[in-house]
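Saturday, quiet lab. Running sequence design on the structure tokens for the scaffold JK sent over.
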């Protein structure tokens, strides 16, 4: 029967464990010297070797002929523990045996001496799943165990283990294994199994494993159906073809092509893509792009593995760091709003529209992103020239060198021209009377400029200002307006309201609407309202009328 790769190639000695040398060397030295603890606590993420090291340690302490701290693997104790025939080495799953009754049964049988080996070993996996009462039942035997007893506890969530248990155990922290180490290990396993594994495919699988060897071997096992395991085979087996569509969507966003971005999203949505998953993938892609941009040399070890380095470098070259951070913040806000939204699709579409058009946002991060883009254009010399002013009706004369050259005239004949005929005298006629010049019509006076109506201006401002600010325009106690020539003076109640009105973007909108309404240029200015009405004060006799008020 076929056996999964992570089971077939599980390490049998401490020397075969990869990436955890700081732990394996310590355990080997303790086995060689005999200075063993009665309780161990192995901490780390999934697939980093906690259970494997626990099994190796259980065999090493019972091995009849240990080799440099490693179990020999040939003695009856080692073979019996491997085959599961030795009942003195018990492996429990605390996720399914987490009650106090399970721990009491364990405690009652633990006091008996081992029958086939030197030490009775209990390996408790996922120990953080035990209940509070179960931890309390385990506490006493952990504090004063018999000489023949050893506990090896393993957990992925240290914060859930009580401090009373932690203080009685020797702790060993298993770290995530680096991607190059996993890639080299995968190449070795593939060679022994007869697979054709390319180096870039091994690196991609190692990054996808996120530091776990078991996950890496499971992914390699999944890709082994292909005759040659390369990048395309990994993408096809892992279902990562959608990642390329996500990268294509981000390229549309970078190009500010809102229409194409929405079309890409619609196609992915029609294919069954969940909007929340898509935004999460975009966040991960932006995160990997940021890592490659801020750490170009060591960024390959920081990325998640779903995208190749060339794609990340190409995307990072088209975005600044501020733009990447701003886009990630926008996506995080959209994901937060999506949890409470009844229409996730619309929320995702609004997020994409906001990402494509950076002028729609007014947050500090989005303003920084726009400034960083302008700074980058100035540094690179790509600055758009301002449009030339329109020419007036009076066209200036062209320069002298633009006048046309005089035309070539034919040369005159050498023969002299005949003399003109003699003039004939004609009696002069009386000059005709010249009519007096007609009087120029007086220009019609220009129509007077329309007066600015505050009521009509408030109606126009309600469409361009935020709703909470537009509603306060009707309150004369908070905002008053008066014209001073071409200046619209707004007297605003001091405090928070004045800070909201006295902003350039708000005053510009008010100036634009006032100018359009009056037909002339009007500038809006804000000032604090100094004669604000004071709060009404009640007399003492009036307060005495309330039953709740008592005077001493």
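Result came back. Writing it out in full:
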């Amino acid at each position: 029967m076929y056996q999964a790769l992570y089971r077939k190639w599980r390490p049998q000695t401490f020397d075969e464990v990869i990436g955890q040398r700081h732990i394996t060397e310590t355990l080997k030295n303790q086995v060689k010297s005999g200075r063993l603890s009665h309780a161990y606590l192995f901490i780390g993420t999934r697939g980093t070797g906690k259970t494997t090291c626990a099994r190796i340690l259980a065999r090493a302490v019972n091995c009849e002929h240990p080799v440099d701290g490693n179990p020999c693997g040939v003695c009856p104790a080692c073979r019996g523990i491997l085959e599961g025939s030795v009942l003195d080495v018990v492996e429990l799953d605390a996720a399914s045996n987490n009650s106090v009754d399970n721990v009491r049964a364990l405690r009652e049988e633990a006091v008996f001496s081992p029958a086939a080996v030197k030490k009775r070993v209990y390996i408790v996996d996922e120990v953080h799943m035990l209940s509070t009462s179960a931890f309390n039942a385990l506490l006493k035997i952990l504090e004063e165990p018999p000489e023949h007893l050893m506990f090896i506890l393993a957990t992925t969530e240290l914060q859930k283990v009580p401090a009373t248990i932690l203080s009685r155990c020797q702790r060993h922290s298993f770290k995530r294994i680096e991607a190059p180490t996993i890639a080299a290990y995968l190449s070795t396993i593939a060679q022994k199994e007869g697979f054709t594994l390319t180096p870039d495919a091994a690196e991609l699988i190692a990054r996808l494993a996120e530091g776990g060897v078991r996950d890496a071997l499971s992914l390699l096992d999944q890709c082994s159906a292909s005759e040659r395991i390369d990048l395309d085979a990994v993408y096809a087996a892992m279902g990562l073809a959608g990642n390329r569509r996500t990268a294509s969507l981000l390229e549309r966003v970078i190009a500010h092509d809102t229409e194409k971005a929405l079309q890409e999203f619609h196609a992915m949505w029609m294919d069954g893509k969940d909007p929340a998953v898509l935004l999460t993938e975009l966040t991960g892609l932006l995160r990997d792009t940021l890592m490659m941009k801020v750490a170009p040399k060591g960024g390959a070890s920081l990325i998640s593995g779903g995208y190749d380095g060339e794609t990340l470098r190409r995307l990072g070259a088209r975005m600044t760091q501020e733009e990447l951070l701003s886009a990630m913040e926008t996506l995080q806000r959209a994901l937060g709003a999506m949890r409470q939204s009844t229409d996730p699709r619309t929320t995702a579409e609004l997020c994409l529209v906001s990402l494509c058009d950076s002028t729609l946002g007014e947050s500090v991060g989005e303003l920084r992103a726009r400034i960083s883009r302008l700074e980058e254009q100035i540094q690179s010399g790509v600055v758009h020239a301002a449009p030339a002013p329109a020419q007036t009706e009076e066209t200036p004369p062209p320069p002298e060198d633009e006048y046309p050259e005089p035309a070539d005239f034919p040369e005159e004949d050498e023969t002299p021209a005949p003399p003109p005929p003699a003039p004939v005298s004609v009696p002069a006629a009386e000059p005709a009377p010249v009519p007096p010049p007609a009087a120029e019509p007086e220009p019609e006076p220009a129509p007077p400029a329309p007066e600015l109506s505050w009521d009509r201006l408030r109606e126009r401002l309600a469409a361009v200002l935020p709703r909470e600010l537009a509603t306060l325009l009707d309150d004369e106690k908070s905002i008053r307006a008066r014209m001073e020539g071409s200046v619209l003076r707004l007297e605003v109640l001091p405090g928070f309201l004045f800070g909201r009105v006295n902003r350039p973007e708000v005053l510009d909108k008010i100036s634009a609407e006032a100018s359009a309404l009056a037909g002339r240029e009007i500038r809006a200015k804000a000032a604090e309202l100094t004669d604000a009405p004071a709060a009404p004060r009640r007399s003492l006799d009036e307060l005495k009328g309330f039953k709740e008020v008592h005077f001493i």
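Notes for JK: The longest helix spans residues 275-294. The domain at 241-378 is CATH 1.20.272.10 (Zinc Finger, Delta Prime; domain 3). Ask whether to fix the surface positions before the next round.
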